[in-house]
Design brief:
11 helices, four-stranded antiparallel sheet, alpha/beta, Aspartate Aminotransferase, domain 1, 385 residues, 15% strand, single chain
Length: 385
């Protein structure tokens, strides 16, 4: 039976060419830590890590590699940012399409006197950015927003949101988990203060490596979530205040950094634009077919405009979890069912608590792969309907 991986919303597969080999080479040929030693292989690790910061800057059109901080994923990045920036009495604006990586930290911090307001998107996940200013309060400190929904793929016009934040003196934090490497992201043009990313989704790198990019203002003002050994200023028992050491305590995921380095080189070489064109072409074919199926409802936008290759459907007469299982067992198609760690988004889309079956389309897929997936969904919904 043919097998097609369509769970790219959870993690990309396959990874970019050369990623696995680069991780292997580090483990076999380098294997040393950062900022702790003064021998050859340690210098290699330090050089590649710095180069990876530069590659992140190149992708996001930023110019301060020292302000690129590595974490294990975008969830950790968002937690560090949220808990380091906002204090008691602060008010935060978010969209109703946010992931639990934003919702749970904010809900936990309500006990510490931090409040937030959701700006509600429509039933396709589209946010009217003109609504933002209506919710700004005197104590509103910042806005946190996902660039694209991990449930339905709908994108938010981050550039317009960034202008509103700048005009109103708000900090702007962007979650690029589903868009980094796929959409053109310009840190300065979009007026960002902080950008959180993960390496294993559309950046096509390994799991366990992510990070964030911040400006000098936040680098100075933010509090730390984790403190410890950095390999610098080891004679003092307080955390260094300079970047990136201020936010990078303990041993980093250096194999992950090596893998991310190779993935970033691939994306920069191929260009996000070319990757997106291929992905959206396949997504358009898939969406058009789904719209003609009687027992399946497409959730979110009904065209390829303002969206990614994340596609959610509802098998209207059946349990979506069972349908996802049957897609795999009968047709070899991997998807993800449920709420996708984004109950707020599902409430907005009208799919809570039922959830959806989510497909993630990759530019590595072929036309034949998409045709096979379409035929598989058609056969399944026809049988079950």
């Amino acid at each position: 039976m043919k097998q097609i991986y369509m769970d790219n919303g959870a993690t990309s597969f396959p990874k970019a060419p050369g990623v696995a080999e680069r991780v292997y080479d580090y483990l076999i040929k380098v294997g040393t830590n950062l900022n702790r030693s003064n021998y050859g292989s340690s210098y290699v690790a330090e050089s590649v890590t710095y180069e990876t910061r530069e590659l992140v800057c190149s992708l996001f059109k930023y110019d301060k590699p020292e302000n690129v901080v590595f974490t294990k994923n975008v969830t950790e990045s968002l937690n560090v940012l949220i808990k380091g920036i906002f204090k008691s009495g602060d008010h935060v604006l978010i969209s109703s399409m946010e992931h639990n990586a934003v919702m749970r930290p904010l809900n936990g911090m309500e006990k510490k006197g931090i409040s937030y307001t959701k700006i509600i998107s429509d039933r396709e996940g589209v946010l009217d950015v003109k609504d933002i200013e209506k919710f700004i309060r005197p104590n509103t400190k910042g806005l946190i927003m996902t660039h694209a929904s991990n449930v339905c793929g709908t994108t938010i016009d981050i550039e317009k949101v960034g202008k509103i934040c700048k005009q109103n003196g708000l900090l702007f934090i962007v979650d690029t988990a589903q868009t980094a490497g796929l959409l053109d992201i310009d840190y300065y043009k979009m007026n960002m203060d902080a950008l959180a990313f993960t390496g294993h989704k559309s950046l096509l790198g390994p799991q366990g490596i992510g990070g964030f990019v911040i400006n000098d203002r936040l680098a100075e003002q933010m509090g730390t979530l984790i403190e410890g050994g950095t390999g610098s200023l080891s004679d003092i028992e307080v955390q260094p205040g300079f970047m990136p050491d201020k936010f990078e305590s303990g041993t980093l995921n250096i194999p992950g950094i090596f893998g991310l380095n190779e993935a970033l080189k691939y994306i920069i070489r191929e260009t996000p634009e070319a990757i997106r064109v291929k992905e959206m072409t396949l997504t358009g074919i898939f969406i058009e077919a789904l719209l003609n199926m009687k027992y399946v409802e497409l959730i979110g936008r009904k065209s390829i405009l303002n969206r990614t290759g994340i596609v959610s459907i509802d098998f209207k007469k059946d349990d979506n979890g069972i349908m996802a299982q049957r897609l795999f067992e009968s047709f070899g198609i991997t998807t993800r069912s449920g709420l996708h760690c984004s109950p707020s988004a599902h409430q907005t889309l009208g799919t809570f608590p039922r959830g959806t079956v989510r497909f993630g389309i990759s530019h590595f897929m072929s036309d034949d792969d998409i045709r096979y997936a379409i035929d598989s969904v058609y056969q399944l919904q026809k049988i079950m309907g």
